[in-house]
Here is the input.
Amino acid sequence: MERAGPIAIDLEVLLLLTSKLSSEDPRLRDEALDWCTKSHRFISKPRLKQLLRLASGPTQTAFEPFAATLERQVGGTWPAAGAAAKEQPWTARLSGKSRAPDLEQPALVNLKLRTLFGVGARADVITAILNWPAPDFGAADLVFVGYTKRNLADSLDALAAGGLLDSVRVGNRIRFSWRKRRELCRLIEPLPKTIPRWPPVFRVLVGFLELLERVEGKSERGSIVEAVRELGRLGADMTALGLEPPRAAATPLEWSQVAEWMLSDARVLAQGRSSASKVA
Here is the structure.
């Protein structure tokens, strides 16, 4: 893995995106698999499973041979490695050049937290709340991370019991806030400049890509129908990211408007600038 930049990396989302683009860049796929053979202990399989459950059908299908190849290379059971994929895993050409991740890179803050708190919801919850824009948060606020609400609640309770967070009951809910954020940040420095909410970013970007693939060769009306359907499916994720798609006003919506908007927002999303993601 090359040296990462100042934007925090989301390992599971990166693997899903790599498998999604594998047909376009087999070499990237093989290098990712090579890295996984040496550093698979950092990968959260439960989170992969949950992110796949929320992903589109084509995304799930694209990950099947990736998962089957991982099973063949490193063993264990991987999400989405179905029987058909196991029979025909990829013939990957592993370079053997991958190195252990340098956990002093700011972009790998989540991997550093996983070495400290374990590969699971606790480390990923901490990553998500490092730059939380509000004074408090609860399990329901963190479902975008990629765990069940029960797992998130249990992790928040454990972090509060350990003294990292404070908790208070508000009605029938428990709200949490930082108690020792400054102390934790000193421990895990250097921090990245931004920690994007990559799961919804990934789903929106993939939705855009799949929409473009479906409308190729279709009429203007057919393209608009597909766009309205796909943007509706992505509504919750787009709202969470602060995205507002073009809507029909005095004149009918045109496909060129939708395509231009998607391209513009895709550039922003790819840089992790879609939501409050700066680390104070």
Notes: The chain has three domains: 11-87, 106-188, 198-270. The chain has a mean pLDDT of 88.
